[in-house]
Amino acid sequence: MSLKNRRHMTVIKETQDGEKILTCIDLDEVNFIDSDNGKIRFHIDNQVYFQITNISELGEILEGFIPLDRPNLVNLLKIKKFDSKNGKVYFEENPNPNSIFATVAKTKYELISVILKRFISHNNNTTLEFEQKKETKGLKGFLEVFKS
Predict the structure, then answer these.
(1) In this structure, what are the phi and psi dihedrals at residue 129, rounded to the nearest 5 degrees?
(2) What confidence tens digit (pLDDT) does each residue in 98-122 have?
(3) 117 and 95, same structural domain?
(4) Are the beta carbons of 59 and 69 closer than 8 angstroms?
(5) Are 73 and 136 contained in the same domain?
(6) pTM as predicted
(7) Which of 49, 60, 75, 88 could form a disulfide with 101 if both were Cys (CB 3.0 to 4.6 A apart)?
(8) Alpha helices for the chain (secondary structure H)
């Protein structure tokens, strides 16, 4: 069989110490598939692999990806702009109406805004400085000032 006809799937493998890792299996190598407590299992020789069943399960495995909203996991190293007015993160510095974006849950704005600003600064190769407003205290009183 040629390589271009091979079928592959990303699955979860659980190591002996309980760590979950992502791996890719060749579906043509699967001996059989079964289900255990709603988890689909792929058996290849003496190895067992599990199908990824939901986004939160994937989020437990992927480093650097965080849920900014219920339906997504976002790679922090790819975010270039945070639009807090519309609750969106963009993957380019100057987004346009056709730019791809991920949504940010309004309930998470305050919690993640400082983290997002730091990652955006890093991703755009800019510095991030904070100045505290005199009339407020704490994180709300900080304004970011980007310098190239």
Answers:
(1) -120, 150
(2) 999 999 999 988 888 888 888 999 8
(3) yes
(4) no
(5) yes
(6) 0.69
(7) 88
(8) 55-61, 109-123
